[in-house]
Amino acid sequence: MATGGPPAPSPPNLVTKVELTISCENLMDMDFFSKSDPVCALFLYTPDSIWYELGRTETIQNCLNPKFSKKFVVDYYFETVQRLKFSVYDIDNDSHDLNDCDHDFLGEFECTLGQIVSNRQMTQPLLLTNKEPAGRGTITIFAEEVTDTRVANFEVSARGLDKKFLRSCDPFLEFYKKSESGWQLAHRTEVVHNNRNPVWIPFCITLRSLCDGDLEKPIKVKCYDHYVNGSHELIGTFKASLAEMLHAGCTFPAEFQCFNEQKLRKGNYKNSGVICIRRCQMEKVYSFLDYILGGCQINFTIAIDFTQSNGVPSSPNSLHYTSPEGFNEYLHAIWAVGHVVQDYNRTKMFPVFGFGAQIPPSSEVSHMFPVNFNPSDPFCAGIEGVVQAYQQCLPCVELWGPTNLSPIIKHVSCFARQALHQNLAAEYFVLLIITDGIVSDMDQTRRAIVKASHLPMSIIIVGVGAADFRAMEFLDSDDHLLRSPSGKAATRDIVQFVPFRKFQDNRVALAQSVLAELPDQVASFFRAYKLKPPNLTDVPETTQ
């Protein structure tokens, strides 16, 4: 081995963010009494030979030619081959699991991110798993480099929309950007039912998606009347620039008349309604990295399931049984997630709690006890300290039950609430719950999660063993906001559930899947509360 000189420098990891816009045409119709309800999921092929889900679009009801408004933003490394797979499914129930037998597979397309970037826009046939064509279905992928992270915040209403025969209307809006290939969908609002004077929920659109950052570039807005069968009827259209919309909120709303070309020839036709931009405000957006570089700390709490359903720890069949190699599923999850999260906390001190066991000296059942048995100082030093405390705790407790999650969620919520009252983006709390069973206090857990959704806090649940985890998937409400038993909705999705059995011994893939949603949850929370990174001088400019 040669010596005598400095080692060759490693090539820098130059990363560019790329936004991908997806649409499909001629999808297979898998439903008897309606059209398919498609969703597109994006997967990345990891170095460990596993397809890891990066995200998925919204589900569009009754549509064989969907244009998805939700974008994928991915990191593009020039020096790395990044294999991607776009899988399209017909969603037939509320299950988040794409392998659910009720969901119909509509086809997939594999390529590299480099191919997409070099083509900028590509249309390819969808294939079945046997590589046969998925009917006449095609997928179109459009790529743009992310260089401007500014957003426009909108509050929009309408008045006097056209009334339909024997019914009012169920309006929604679509915003389109002018591109080289035509008008490209940038955003779709929710449907407001039975209302000719709707007020839509406030929303934001990136300037990149809306107008390529050019405030004078024309934007097309379409107003539709929603029909359940997917044959939405156009109410009217108008065009305006973002500069014109930005006048809203200064002294009065910016108003734009909607016109329907088919009605323009009528002599008494005035318009099909008026769209009111009640507020349009442009702002700089800070990323997850901006907040971390600006001094935000990730406070990581671990909660471990010590209920009887895990099995007697001395038995090789127990989930708490430590193999001769020194591992079990609980330890795998702690190592995989903890080693990533600990880098974002300067102290490397983590509180660790157990639940569902009889604890010494009273043998009372506890649903939240420090695994080091020190209530005044439940912290462990680093992930190594967490592992050591867990291993020392296990022989001292009697596995019991039931599986109650609400106490530990409420406990961490208290600290997150205190941090929020400081009105700084200085702390964010992550609760990792590792459990094998069905939640016993589901109503209380739902209520606790809904309350926690208002706080700087996220909950990660890793399900170990072979139990039925459909209830956990319900808590991980990616396609709809979780509601408490009283019907109160969460303000955002803060739960990420991952079944350990999908990853087994692959720590890297487990950590990627478990932590996939965390950066966006952190950044979106602080942005919603308009909290800037605490040390702005340390944060580089990220927008123009």
Summarize the structure.
The chain is an alpha+beta fold and 544 residues long.
The amount of beta strand, in percent, is 25-35%
According to CATH, the homologous superfamily of the largest domain is: von Willebrand factor, type A domain
Specify Rg, calculated over alpha carbons. Answer: 26 Å
Helix content: 10-25%
Return the structural class: alpha+beta
Ends distance:
49 Å
Topology, number of strands: 26
Mean pLDDT: 88
Number of domains: 3
- CATH topology tier name of the largest domain: Rossmann fold
* Biggest pleated-sheet summary: 7 strands, mixed
Overview of this structure, please?
This protein is α+β, with helices and mostly antiparallel strands and 544 residues long. The protein contains 11 helices and 26 strands. The protein has 3 domains: 131 residues, Sandwich (Immunoglobulin-like), CATH 2.60.40; 133 residues, Immunoglobulin-like; 240 residues, von Willebrand factor, type A domain (Rossmann fold). Strands 17, 18, 21, 22, 24, 25 and 26 form a 7-stranded mixed sheet that branches. A 4-stranded antiparallel sheet has the order 4-1-8-7, covered by helices on one side. A 4-stranded antiparallel sheet has the order 3-2-5-6.
